[in-house]
Design brief:
The chain is mainly beta. Helix content is about 10%, strand content about 45%.
């Protein structure tokens, strides 16, 4: 697991639109910052419901980026209506050189983010949300920065359910 110190990490998160400009002004001091609301975005804002086997995928979104920014973020909600677990094993997009599945969490005063190379388990009968501040998508080497109102095509690959194409609606970098 890679640990990134708060000043460099906060600058990256600000650039990705995962946290607001107030932190950009004081990215050296994250101590005492309430990170609990970062994943509370209303996931129903983006995309239509897509079904793949026992899985229902909804709320697909990406965040608008700054000009020249090579990294972007996004997410969606996936519900497993089946009786067996599945796993999101990879995500690809023609808009990016690579799409990584990440986990982010505060541990004390240190924000930790790591790539989940083995994917994310979608437990039977449960819902998993990918959103800023927790599990999320990280678009690496983005060819053209995402602008609010754009659409970002992705292909999700699940271990059991297979592949599905999805379109992420690009929301404001500031979010709600």
């Amino acid at each position: 697991m890679k640990i990134v110190r708060t000043s460099a990490f906060a600058a990256l998160l600000c650039a990705c639109g995962f946290i607001g400009s107030a932190l950009a002004q004081d990215h050296h001091n994250m101590q005492g910052m309430d990170m609990g609301n970062m994943g509370s975005m209303n996931m129903a804002m983006g995309g239509d419901l897509v079904k793949l086997g026992d899985l229902e995928i909804s709320g697909a979104f990406a965040k608008a980026m700054l000009p020249g920014q090579p990294v972007g973020g996004g997410g969606f909600t996936v519900k497993n209506n089946g009786s067996t677990d599945d796993r999101l094993v990879s995500v690809t997009s023609p808009t990016s050189g690579e799409v990584q599945i990440h986990e982010m969490a505060m541990q004390g005063n240190v924000m930790k983010m790591r790539q989940l190379k083995d994917g994310i388990i979608i437990p039977a009968g449960q819902t998993v949300e990918l959103a800023p501040g927790n599990l999320h998508l990280m678009f690496q080497k983005v060819k053209t920065p995402f602008k609010q109102g754009d659409k970002v095509p992705v292909t999700l690959t699940f271990e059991k359910a297979g592949k599905v194409d999805l379109v992420l609606n690009v929301l404001s970098a500031q979010g709600k």
